[in-house]
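Go through this chain.

——
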Amino acid sequence: MITIKNLFCILCALPLFLTGNPLLTNVINEFQTDTILGQKIELGLINYGWEIPLYGTIVTTPGGVAHIDTAISIPPYGFAVIDTSVLSGQFYLPLNNGYIQVYQQDYFIDEVRYSDTLHSPILSPPMSTSASRIIFIRSNNEPRIDWYIDTTPTIGGPNDDYPGCVIDGYVYLNNTPIAGAMVTANLYEGFQNPGSFYTSCTTYTNTSGFYSFDSLLPARYWMTASFGNHTPNGELTPILSALWPRRINFHFIGSEEKHLTNQNFSEAFSVSPNPSRGMMIIKCIIHDRDMAQNPSLVIYDAMGKIVRCFNHLSTIHHNGGLSSYQVIWDGTDNSGCILPAGIYFINLEIGDYRRIEKALLLK
């Protein structure tokens, strides 16, 4: 007997000139294993405007092999529900671990596996729920698929209630959780329609040093933590999943921020306009006695890489031992190349003093 697994192997082994149009995949859209409400599979394809007849479709589960014996179809841009009422043969989905394989000659082939083990891409749906799929289209037209548990199953209709993904964690200074650290999450890859999910967001740690982001896309995000006089700490996440929150902790080492003379921070260091479309004026007030410590003005990108250094600060005003300095940044790097839009960190260092300002460069 030829099983769906054997068909996968046979199709992969066929020479290219023997294959016709490629079979469609990603056709299993939702399923439930509930033995009371009924075990069901939903088949559907996004952006597919043709009817697909399902008569004769082979459906393989841990219960055995069955085939659709009823003249049903997947309508254009629609969905079809498969259960024992349209099947002949053996069909059963175990509650904790199982698989579904479907094959319709000349049309599609697909397989999903689910389990209740840690970090399973598809979790076994609890009773009265379903395992549902969502698809986002990336900028390069490739699909990004994520599975989630739907507490209000929509078998036969479009999937909804996708919760998005979660990133959380702690920020530490010398292994001690710190409050008030700024944490940002910025989408690292492009999507055509992110919908209501966040592509960029900022939060601050609470009194326990904890932060959390939700409603994120199933994608990679560049995470950055900033605190006091410390260089920003960045990390790229793996592709997120709604089923498994991702924990990202940040560790800083060093002393607390030291103040420069008695100047108020907002007066001592400023960046404007911010955001900017390519021209920012960076101003700072420095006591004359501190100039001997060789002030350093450096700009980092969101990944923590130095993109621009200013070795000379131009004096624009002097009064009573205090000098005002100004630098004009035109959005270029040290080579004169125009930098991409995004978040940058402007870092002023004078001896033990360090001040960081977050800047947003627009295009």
